[in-house]
């Protein structure tokens, strides 16, 4: 209705899902997309999965006594590719400014949204794991527990990060203050 492309809507939806389903999606994850360009009858694919961090090597694991790839923790993750994927999709197909596309996610991150019952259940399952890290717990376990269904949840830190990406593009995430 505002003259955007389906990709603009997909990026907006992905950004909102990163807020309302924080254990399933988000800026810290990867992005895969298949886009059909009807005007050119062309199919485009994007693999925006991130690489291993530059400083992470088998030698780093050996020095730390790690003999198998860990399932959890900082050494089990790659450089997030989602924001780079947003930028690539936006550059190729987007018609709206990134700030407009990310505005709904920023709004709900600042003003809050009611946690859906199925999301509350999934969040509760992860409560113990989330509680291990104090800063993660401060964000995702308000009052010391996973939010119950219907609880209004806000994430002002995510809103700030989204605002930076909206204003400065993917560089704000990978090279700027978020990095």
* Topology as a string of helices (H) and strands (E): HEEHHHEHHHEHH
Residue share in helices? 40-55%
Q: How large is the count of helical segments?
A: 9
Broad shape: globular
Description:
This protein is mainly α and 179 residues long. It has helices at 6-20, 58-63, 82-93, 98-111, 117-125, 127-130, 134-140, 156-168, 171-174, and strands at 31-37, 42-48, 113-114, 152-153. The strands form 2 sheets. Strands 1-2 form a two-stranded antiparallel ribbon. Strands 3-4 form a two-stranded antiparallel ribbon. The longest helix has 15 residues, at 6-20. The chain starts with 5 loop residues before the first helix and ends in a 5-residue tail after the last helix.
């Amino acid at each position: 209705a505002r003259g955007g492309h389906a990709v603009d809507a997909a990026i907006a939806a992905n950004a909102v899902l990163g807020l309302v389903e924080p254990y399933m999606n988000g800026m810290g994850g990867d992005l895969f997309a298949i886009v059909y360009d009807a005007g050119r009858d062309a199919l485009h694919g994007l693999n925006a999965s991130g690489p291993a961090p530059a400083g992470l090597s088998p030698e780093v694991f050996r020095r730390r006594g790690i003999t198998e790839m860990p399932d959890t923790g900082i050494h089990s993750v790659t450089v997030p590719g989602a924001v780079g994927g947003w930028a690539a999709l936006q550059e190729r197909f987007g018609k709206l400014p990134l700030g407009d596309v990310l505005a709904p996610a920023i709004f709900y991150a600042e003003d809050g949204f009611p946690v859906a019952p199925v999301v509350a259940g999934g969040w509760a399952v992860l409560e113990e794991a989330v509680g291990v890290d104090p800063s993660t717990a401060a964000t995702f376990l308000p009052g010391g527990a996973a939010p119950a269904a219907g609880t209004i949840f806000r994430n002002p830190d995510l809103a700030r990060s989204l605002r930076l990406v909206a204003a400065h593009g993917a560089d704000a995430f990978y090279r700027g203050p978020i990095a």
